[in-house]
Amino acid sequence: MGSVCDHEHAPGGLSASEIGRALTLAEDRCVADGERMTAPRRRVLELLLQAGEAVKAYDLIARFGADGTAAKPPTVYRALDFLEKKGLAHRIASISAYVACSVGDRAHAAAFLICDCCGATEEVTPPEGEALQQAASASGYLLQRTTIEGHGRCPACRIAA
Prior knowledge:
Number of helices: 6
Structural class: alpha+beta
Low-confidence stretches: none
Largest sheet: 3 strands, mixed
């Protein structure tokens, strides 16, 4: 994702057992909400969990098929839309990419630290998430999603520089 990064990074994705647990929790959440975790939705979430970093939709499309075949773009975009609405994934607008939610068990305001060197993303609790919700409520708004993005350098890129 980063364009200037010329040093190595440890892979950030989850282990196979962690992915399995996360997928089971996501399916349980969908069932509890009266929704279905369809095969395409499950596959897109699995790819996001495997990546462990922000992934562009077209990269998900290319990786979608287990046999190496690409998915049709509407299939992946519909899955991403669903996952985002359920709070299982977040869209990071500034880099036009998606990341699996690290909380995943409830709707919440999300804040991301994004490395401009390597593209690493880390979800953190926004310092004023609850205050923003209260301000919106006082103004008569009902916020559906809140995403805050901060750009800079991750620890590995800072050390390498």
